Automatic annotation (TrEMBL), chain A:
It is found in: Cell membrane. SMART domains: AAA (SM00382). Its main location: membrane. It comes from Nocardioides flavus (ex Wang et al. 2016). The keyword Repeat does not apply. This is ABC transporter ATP-binding protein. SUPFAM superfamilies: P-loop containing nucleoside triphosphate hydrolases (SSF52540).
From TrEMBL, chain B:
It is a multi-pass membrane protein. This is ABC-2 type transport system permease protein. It is found in: Membrane. Signal peptide: none annotated. Residues 1-14 have a biased composition (Low complexity). Keywords: Membrane, Transmembrane, Transmembrane helix. The chain crosses the membrane at residues 44-63, 75-97, 117-142, 154-179, 191-210, 242-264. It comes from Nocardioides flavus (ex Wang et al. 2016). Residues 1-25 are annotated as: Disordered.
Length: 289, 271
């Protein structure tokens, strides 16, 4: 058994709001991630994803619990260049150019030899001379991704990595990530885009109110809470100007067979159903549908 | 190791074993050089650091051959303006360092092997390099346009202006940690203009304004820088004993230091 990439036990973190009321951002989180896994942290805003990520990276100290990254403290793993991250907010200086930003952070990692490699990997070559302030949101994310690749880390943590990207940029970004995962990197990413977890992660950790509410292979999460859905197209005569004919719909309920249903399509339910079921407030898990 | 890691199969092999990687050493000199170039490229910032004090020297200093202490008025104005430029430089470099930290660059740096002490050292080196620019430029212009004094006045005043400007790096940190946000370095340098008037830097003051000015932070630093030339004599008559500017500098260093410490504590508490 190899050392896990991440082993966190009993993580807890409390913040004080502006008006002084304490908020429990992360409440008793246990998590183990093995080398080579691709794990999605899924949850609505305020679920505690960013705080958890910060503790995994050693940027925030937990109030209780322990974190080990490759068997050492997060800070030590960062110093060894085994872990890096793409952060959600801030993190860039506007008056550096793209190339200067990469060179500056490369110097701090002592890895100036990797400047060319990561610029190419993040498709930044044409933007190298541009000032950071002139970049679009998606281009900024790509730059941060390039910075994260500088130490050639074993584990990359991405916090809402595709924020501000359009559909095309998002696809391109995940393509680059997939290529990287194929090289054996461990990838943990926080997102509130269900499709990203659904498409990219092998394992999904659902968080809500600072707790892990479900942790399983992505297909299991989908299957356990979404079940299977049957989709069919009604005959043309049953569809009027104001939607599907109610009488006809009543008939559907009574009997399926003789109604001339064409083009039946059976598909897996979306992860969205599972997500809504698990994160709905004041409802027992699984009872939303 | 480098090529193997980025090559694929080699990467997988290295990744699964538990061997400790050798921690690479941060190259602070490269970082400091890039950062220095970024600061020097900032045209508006450099206008206040070099352009404005040079202009003021040209207006008030050139051709003023009246004697002051062991030199002349041009020399007196030259030292004052170089001091203003140096202080603006350290204030804005230190201030922007604090603001960068608060605005999120600090998180990026937190994910590198660099230690915070090394960051402070690099920023201090950048601040002193930027501060040297107005001192060298204005002293050179002064030497070419009739500023006269004993050779020891040149050396001591230059050293005091340059090294003493460190004191305002602490001020820049304090102000930017107190007023957080992207405008904080601008506020800090803007306040330097007011403090320069109050501190007897731009125009000689007298009476009540002079009495008040003695308690403001730029007064002690500039008076100390001019001390080798003036021996404490003021343009409007009267004389400051040496302990007065020294006490001023020490007192304000303590005050700025305490405010900066409080600011650091406060910014830590948030995260």
């Amino acid at each position: 058994m190899t050392t896990p990439a991440i082993r966190a036990t009993g993580l807890r973190k409390q913040f004080r709001q502006a008006d002084g009321t304490p908020v429990l951002a992360v409440d008793d989180v246990d998590l183990t991630v093995h080398p080579g896994e691709i794990v999605a942290f899924l949850g609505p805003n305020g679920a505690g994803k960013t705080t958890t990520v910060d503790m995994l990276l050693g940027l925030t100290a937990p109030d209780a619990g322990t974190v080990e990254v490759y068997g050492t403290s997060p800070g030590e793993a960062v110093r060894q260049g085994r872990v890096s991250a793409v952060m959600q907010t801030g993190g860039l200086l506007n008056d550096f150019t793209v190339a200067e930003t990469v060179r500056a952070i490369a110097a701090l990692h002592g890895r100036s030899d990797r400047v060319e490699v990561v610029i190419e990997r993040a498709h930044l070559a044409e933007l190298a001379g541009r000032r950071v302030e002139a970049l679009s949101g998606g281009e900024r994310q790509r730059l941060k991704f390039a910075l994260a690749l500088l130490p050639d880390p074993d584990l990359v943590v991405l916090d809402e990595p595709t924020t501000g990207m359009d559909v095309g940029a998002r696809q391109e970004f995940w393509q680059a990530m997939r290529a990287d995962a194929a090289l054996g990197r461990t990838i943990v990413f926080a997102t509130h885009y269900l499709a990203e977890a659904d498409e990219f992660a092998e394992r999904t950790v659902l968080m809500n109110h600072g707790r892990i509410v479900h942790d399983a292979p992505t297909t299991d999460v989908r299957a356990a809470y979404g079940g299977r859905t049957l989709t069919f197209r009604p005959p043309a005569g049953a569809v009027g100007a104001d939607g599907i004919d109610a009488d006809w719909l009543g008939q559907v309920h009574r009997a399926l067979e003789p109604l001339g249903v064409t083009d039946v399509d059976v598909s897996a339910a979306s992860l969205e159903a599972a997500f809504l079921a698990l994160t709905a407030d004041d409802q027992p898990i699984g009872a939303a549908r | 190791m480098t090529t193997a890691l980025s090559a694929g199969t080699g990467a997988a092999a290295t990744r699964t074993d538990d061997g400790v990687r050798p921690a690479p050493r941060p190259r602070m000199a490269t970082y400091a050089r890039l950062d220095l170039r970024r600061q020097l490229r900032d045209r508006i910032g450099m206008f206040f650091v070099v352009g404005l004090p040079t202009f003021m020297y040209l207006v008030f200093g050139i051709g003023s051959a009246d004697p002051v202490g062991s030199g002349n008025v041009a020399m007196y104005v030259m030292i004052s303006m170089a001091a203003y430029g140096a202080v603006t430089a350290t204030t804005s470099v230190a201030g922007s360092a604090a603001t960068e930290q608060v605005m999120g660059w600090g998180r990026q740096l937190g994910l590198t092997p660099m230690r915070p002490v090394a960051f402070v050292a690099a920023k201090a080196a950048v601040a002193m390099a930027v501060a040297a620019v107005p001192v060298l430029a204005i002293f050179a212009i002064g030497a070419a346009t009739g500023a006269r004094g004993h050779w020891s006045d040149w050396v001591l005043a230059g050293a005091l202006v340059w090294l003493g400007s460190v004191h305002f790096a602490v001020y820049g940190l304090a102000v930017c940690l107190a007023f957080r946000g992207p405008n904080a370095p601008g506020i800090a340098s803007g306040m330097i203009v007011i403090l320069a008037f109050l501190g007897n830097v731009f125009t000689p003051m007298s009476g009540f304004m002079l009495d008040l000015g003695r308690f403001t932070p730029l007064y002690g630093y500039v008076a100390l820088a001019r001390f080798p030339l003036t021996d404490g004599w003021l343009p409007v008559g009267g004389r400051d004993p040496l302990w007065l500017p020294v006490a001023n500098v020490l007192a304000w260093t303590v005050i700025f230091g305490l405010v900066a410490l409080w600011g650091v504590r406060r910014s830590r508490a948030r995260t």
